[in-house]
């Protein structure tokens, strides 16, 4: 089968022909229909820290949606032709596209416990986005952030994740504020239910934000969140724009700020986001490319040219 290979940091993705995988006991084979492209896929090209969780060479692609092509022994509950997506974290402890084969190939094997059925009416490209952008956003706002109805929430970054996180917070009864440097998406942020949009989260220091979720993660955004959040507020760090940050510990200490790092979310988070998508309550901005366009898509992500989430349709 055709696949994109990752061989190491600072090395380009290469198209290769590899043997089609076969599902073992408790596994299914998925014919890929859509695979998301993520800023993490930019990160593996640039930062050696990612190599700690990768087995090389690797087929990247952790946002997986497709059709069941074969079912292994003891893999019950799904049949050939079912529309499914995959929880990227993996119950086996190895994330798809990192510690095990991902979706940037024509087929991928998934453990049955990692599979989620795609609801009727949800297209493959949205389902792919739900597996990471949706899961991570829900995990940040609701699971790590422990959002309660009526809270004032700050969302930093209105990209592929932030747009979903802001919408989840609004649908969950929060008063939502967005910090986003790109004014071109401000109207879209307001349309999700945001009360106000600013360039820097520090501009919201007088609002009394109880929770801030940093979907950007460029260091200065983390520092700004600590300074802007209210007394005994929570800051959830999700974005990995930079893997190091300098923060002012004085407000962290004096305001009793709870700073929490989080990656991903639960399998249930994906199912909940898919429900929101099926009802039409969540409909994130999606840009499409194809299988051959994956490397150029990653370049576009790196240059900041993608609005929303970028998904390759096969």
UniProtKB/TrEMBL annotation:
Keywords: Metal-binding, Oxidoreductase, Zinc. It catalyses: a primary alcohol + NAD(+) = an aldehyde + NADH + H(+); a secondary alcohol + NAD(+) = a ketone + NADH + H(+). The keyword Zinc applies. CDD domains: hydroxyacyl_CoA_DH. SMART domains: PKS_ER. The keyword Zinc applies. One of its GO terms (cellular component) is cytoplasm. Residues 8-312 form the Enoyl reductase (ER) domain. It is an enzyme of class 1 (oxidoreductase). Its cofactor is Zn(2+). GO terms for molecular function: alcohol dehydrogenase (NAD+) activity; zinc ion binding. Gene3D superfamilies: Medium-chain alcohol dehydrogenases, catalytic domain, NAD(P)-binding Rossmann-like Domain. PANTHER family: ALCOHOL DEHYDROGENASE 1-RELATED (PTHR42940), VACUOLAR PROTEIN SORTING-ASSOCIATED PROTEIN 11 (PTHR42940:SF8). Belongs to the zinc-containing alcohol dehydrogenase family. This is alcohol dehydrogenase.
